[in-house]
Amino acid sequence: MTSTPSAHPVLRVAGLSKTYGSGTRAFQAIADVSFEVRAGEIVCIVGPSGAGKTTLLKCLSGLLERSAGVIECAGETVRGTPRQMALVFQEYGRSLMPWLTVERNVMLPLRGKGIAEDEMQGRMRNSLAAVGLAQAAKKYPWQLSGGMQQRVAIARALAYRPEVLLMDEPFASVDAQTRMDLEDLVLQIRDEFAITIVFVTHDIEESIYLGDRVVVLSRSPTRVRRVVDVALGKGRNQVDTKGLPAFDEYRRELMSLLDRQIHRDATA
Length: 268
Known about the structure:
By secondary structure, this protein is of the alpha/beta class.
């Protein structure tokens, strides 16, 4: 199935803020963040170090309570962890259970959800096949490479059948070649599963390659500096897409936005 981004926002964030503590010890991590994600889109989030990207993602997922603002997923206000969302963490080694086989790791979030065993098995097999690990079901995570372990984490999220997949710098700990393979996997699963993806990254080129749009954040207290539309179309690949003049233009634009933010902080 091929997913085409629609005009309908599946995720809406309006006036989001997050403050830790209170009184004189209060620290405002996020000041005012607003953006929308349309169904079928990949929206990447970038920003300087300390911009609160992970804090933002935790707020979106309901793992962290927001201080103010509105978050809606599929038309419902986010309160707690939304049933329509799944989250893939950066530290795949910590999110997988080393004492469980790959297949049992993938089925773990389905337990206790009232899903029949046959359906759980089917989802597991389908998800592992989608990430190229159909033959690894009986292995344990520690028997796999880092890139393969992250594929297992992605398969587990897919088995949950979310409408929105949140990914928190998921490829930061793998080598360059594996990273490119996993980037292509993200594009593949977006189309195959008709899923919407919010992807946090510190890598400018990755955000352009994957994103239909890129949300550029300021330093903390975080605001949205700009939302950049990436008009590179479908059928992207590592060689041709990254060799386009337009790709270089997007890279210059995003780097300029981040450089100006860093320069402003240095001279403040």
